[in-house]
Amino acid sequence: MKTRAARAKAAAVAPAPAASSAPAAPKKRTSPVKFAQEVRAEARKITWTSRQETWITSVMVFIMVALAGLFFFGTDSALGWLVAQVLKFANAG
Predict the structure, then answer these.
(1) Who wins on pLDDT, 5 or 14?
(2) Looking at per-residue confidence, does 23 or 86 come out higher?
(3) What pLDDT, on a 0 to 100 scale, did the predictor assign at position 23?
(4) What are the backbone angles phi and psi of residue 85, rounded to the nearest 5°?
(5) CA of 71: how far to CAs of 3, 16, 53, 75, 79, in Å?
(6) pTM higher than 0.85
(7) Alpha carbon separation from 3 to 9, 46, 50, 54 (Å, rounded)
(8) Cβ–Cβ contacts within 10 Å for residue 76, how many?
(9) Are 11 and 54 in contact (CB under 8 A)?
(10) What is the DSSP string of 21-72?
C-alpha cells in the first residue's frame, strides 16, 4: 500500500497530456447513470486519513487554538493596560 506522499509524488511525475493544435471537440453529454458510475470510481481513489491521523491533527489544532487564544489575551491585556496608563497620565495633568 502506497503512502499519501508516494502517491502525490507519482502523480507529480506523471507526464502531462500533449496539447494538440486542433480545436477541442464539443463534450458529449453524460447520462445520470454514467455520471454516478464515474463519481463512485473517483470516490474509490480517495485516500482517507486513519483514526490516529485524525486524532493527532485534532489535538494539534486544539493546541494551536489555545496558544493563539493565550497570545491574543496577553496582547489585549497589555495594550489595555498601556492605554489605561496613558489615559491616567493625560487626566492627571
Answers:
(1) 5
(2) 86
(3) 72
(4) -65, -40
(5) 36, 46, 27, 6, 12
(6) no
(7) 10, 12, 12, 16
(8) 10
(9) no
(10) SSPPPPPPP--HHHHHHHHHHHHHT--PPPHHHHHHHHHHHHHHHHHHHHHH
